[in-house]
Write a structure and sequence with these properties.
about 350 residues; alpha/beta; about 30% helix
């Protein structure tokens, strides 16, 4: 099969012919229709979580496609099934899983991090009976691919973790695919949204999705406080850098709630003095369990939620390699996906 592959952190990402995967006894092989191009792929390539990666490595963790092979111990899936999977492939037996918190499974496995991922024509996924989610026939697989990480993470961050209420102000820092997903989720809850980014095209898309206020990088905190009469009720860092975290926290009202969704490299300073002085709440959101992914897919298929408004580019593997490591990979608009079976220049 063809796949994106690299052999060192920060090294060349190339399209290569590699061996087809075989299904693990408890897993399946999925023919990948589309694989989301997420900033987390860039973090992995940079080595920001170097404890789990072995080389050579195939990235990619947002996927949708068709089951083509099934392991001997799998009971609930057969070839031909249209599926997606959360990027946290849970064990189902640890303390977190038993409590219903599969998104923080203590023995989690992530495609594109713990093993070869979905920026490839085929990917092997273990623990299939626990984690695979059926994609409704009415839903485009390229749309479904972007929901397994960014959109479902954003939805859970807004609805479950922050418990955003109608009329509350929410500031979203970073308007890539993840941040735009946060905006759509917040807008659907009746919140008033401020979007912050350095890219005018992203801010235009944020405004089209319902952000009342869009701000560039200058004087962010003062302008957020001015627009909201003292600060937002909720802030979300959806990009993952020190400046975004600081702006998000300083722009909150007293007693405000911050949700950290963007991945942060080690050594980032968080202004905890502000958290203490103004009694802010600081929480993380890390993906969503399979049951929540299934719920989002059903809502999308019914038209209750419309993430199709977040659609980004569709790239072949070669363009995906350039996008993942270059300016497009870190600044792409919407939920861009790689279509591994597309011929060069046709995706």
């Amino acid at each position: 099969m063809r796949a994106l592959q690299y052999e060192e952190f920060g090294g060349p990402v190339e399209v290569r012919d590699v061996a087809d995967p075989a299904p693990p006894p408890d897993g399946v092989v999925v023919e990948v229709a589309a694989s989301g191009l997420c900033r987390s792929d860039w973090h992995g390539w940079m080595g920001h979580d170097d404890a789990v990666t072995t080389f050579p490595h195939v990235p990619g963790h947002e996927l949708a496609g068709t089951v083509v092979a099934v392991g001997a111990d799998v009971a609930g899936w057969s070839p031909g099934a249209r599926v997606t999977v959360p990027f946290i492939v849970a064990c189902g037996t640890c303390r977190a899983c038993r409590a219903g918190n599969e998104q923080v499974c203590l023995q989690q496995w992530q495609p594109g991090f713990h093993g070869w991922g979905s920026h490839a024509e085929y990917v092997a996924i273990p623990r299939a009976d626990r984690n695979l989610v059926a994609v409704p026939e009415a839903l485009d697989l390229a749309v479904a691919a972007g929901l397994g990480c960014r959109f479902t993470t954003a939805w859970r961050a807004v609805v479950d973790v922050a418990a955003v209420q109608p009329g509350e102000w929410v500031s979203v820092h970073g308007c890539g695919g993840l941040g735009l997903s946060v905006i759509l989720a917040a807008q659907s809850r009746g919140a008033r949204v401020i979007a912050v980014d350095v890219d005018e095209n992203r801010l235009a898309q944020a405004h089209a999705l319902g952000a009342e206020v869009v701000l560039g990088p200058d004087d962010v905190v003062d302008r957020v406080r001015e627009a909201t009469d003292g600060g937002t009720d909720v802030s979300v860092d959806a990009v993952g850098n020190e400046e975004a975290v600081a702006n998000a926290l300083h722009g909150l009202s007293a007693g405000g709630r911050h949700v950290q969704v963007g991945l942060l490299p080690a050594g980032v300073h968080v202004p905890m003095e502000d958290v203490i002085a103004r009694e802010l709440s600081l929480v993380g959101a890390h993906g969503a369990p399979a049951r929540d992914v299934a719920g989002v897919l059903a809502a999308v298929a019914e038209g209750t939620v419309v993430p199709q408004r977040l659609a980004g580019g569709r790239l072949d593997l070669a363009d995906g390699a350039r996008a993942m490591v270059g300016s497009v990979g870190t600044r792409s608009a919407g939920l861009a996906v790689i279509e591994p079976h597309a011929a060069a220049g046709t995706a």
